[in-house]
Amino acid sequence: MPVVRQPIDRLGADPGRRRLLSALLGAPLLVTGGLAGCTDESTTSAEDGPVELSVFWWGGQKRAELTEKALRLYSERNPRVTFRVTWQGADGYYDRLATQAAGGNIPDLIQVDDAVLAEYAEREIVLDLTDSVADRRLDLGGLPDGLVRSGTVDGRTMGVAAGQTLGAVVFNRDLLRELRVPEPRGGMSWADYIAWATEVTEASDGQVAGTVDASGDYRAFWLWLRSQGGEFYRGRQMGFGADELIAWFELWQRARAGRATPGAALVEQSDSGEPARQLVVTGLTAASFAWSHQLPDLQRLTDAELGVVGIPGPPGSQWARASMYWSAFRGTRHPDTVIDVINFLTTNGEAGTVLGHERGLNASIPVRRYTEGSITDPAQQRAAAFGASIADQLGPAPAPPPMGHAKVRSLLVTAAESIRGGRAGTRAATSRFLSLANAALAA
């Protein structure tokens, strides 16, 4: 269920009414303007009179506490600016955004990910920030090139990375100690990883499977493709063919045959990506695939100590990926202030200290340096240490996923589940996936 805040100091809630996402497309569009950017020193809004901005993001309680604290810090520096906030878990987030749109309450500042960034850009739902970057009202100079590129759609800056993350294997360190099985290693091959998972299953006498089945995990598949010189997308088309996808599915068929993974019904529980459903948290596997920035959330859900390493394959198959973006609604009445708030949240050292690594490594390298030593949460420290350990080995960032990416992700899950459940053969599921995926990208 969405969590909405009643007014707390300058922070409150932004309710909405449930309609369809299409309401976003019919929302009125207003004007844009200019504003001096903010730095680690002071922040000054150019707008006269009081300004109230609505902000919406997904995440847990801890993220909400830290984000609200950072927004309060902005208001302390800009007393004319106040905030109304809404937040909830990842499940149903975009439906809730559509609800707010239907009620005429589209937030001024929203958190989005690469599942919708290109679509929202092409449908002119989010504000084009290119001019603000050019005149440095929005300062991207401290971001790695990969993070700058990931927020750019067709040459236009449509979002600013709120954090940096990496594909990761999160594992139950306490369980592996108990079973006397070594921890998975970063950079191990996929064959070695599945052999390791099989060893875990055998050591536990089948009580715990070694790993979740990642056959429907687009992130794992994407990195597997890149480890072989491939890519998930080539422009607005799929970057792979039937042979590659069949090989991927067959890799996991062998893993299932060797009992490296649990049964299909259990795996499907974790397919939503919700932290509370991850099998490493529920104790049904020794490891799950996740984004590295999710480690703190996962750790809060279990008493077992969790560790993190890279997804199998060479570190160079990974890239500096945005965990999520801050974007402005194109129809906001206060574009100047929204841009200033984005700049504050992503370039201000004090804001960075407040936010920590809850959304991943801070996107800005100077802010990372500024906040170094201020992170006290052990899980955030482990996630940060993992990111730093391979920072110099990352490969080039691909372009943001094209419009239709969210549907493609869903189709991959469906294809994998149909194979796991015995409802379709590998070749039939692959053929159907490619047909539907290509149609989704062409729509």
Overview of the structural elements:
With 443 residues, the chain is an alpha+beta fold. The chain folds into two domains: 3-162 and 323-376, 3-Layer(aba) Sandwich (D-Maltodextrin-Binding Protein, domain 2), CATH 3.40.190; 167-317 and 404-442, Periplasmic binding protein-like II (D-Maltodextrin-Binding Protein, domain 2). Helix content is 40%, strand content 14%. It has 18 helices and 14 strands. The protein has helices at residues 61-77, 93-102, 117-122, 130-134, 145-150, 173-179, 190-203, 218-227, 242-257, 264-269, 279-282, 295-300, 335-347, 349-355, 365-371, 378-389, 405-420, 426-442; strands spanning 3-4, 11-12, 51-58, 81-88, 109-112, 152-153, 156-157, 160-165, 167-172, 233-234, 237-238, 287-291, 306-310, 321-328. Strands 1, 2, 3, 4, 5, 8 and 14 form a seven-stranded mixed beta sheet that branches. The chain has a three-stranded antiparallel beta sheet with strand order 12-9-13. Helix 9 packs across helix 18 and helix 17 packs antiparallel against helix 18. The radius of gyration is 22 Å and the shape is globular. The model is unreliable at 1-46 (pLDDT under 50).
Which properties best describe this structure?
disordered N terminus, D-Maltodextrin-Binding Protein, domain 2, globular, seven-stranded mixed β-sheet, 443 residues, alpha+beta, three-stranded antiparallel β-sheet, 2 domains
Task: State the CATH superfamily name of the largest domain.
Answer: Periplasmic binding protein-like II
CATH class value of the largest domain:
Alpha Beta
Q: How confident is the prediction overall: mean pLDDT?
A: 87
Portion in helices: 40-55%
Give me the number of helical elements: 18
Strand segment tally: 14
Amino-to-carboxy terminus distance: 31 Å
**Number of spatially distinct domains:** 2
Largest sheet: 7 strands, mixed
> What amount of the residues lies in strands?
5-15%
* Morphology call: globular
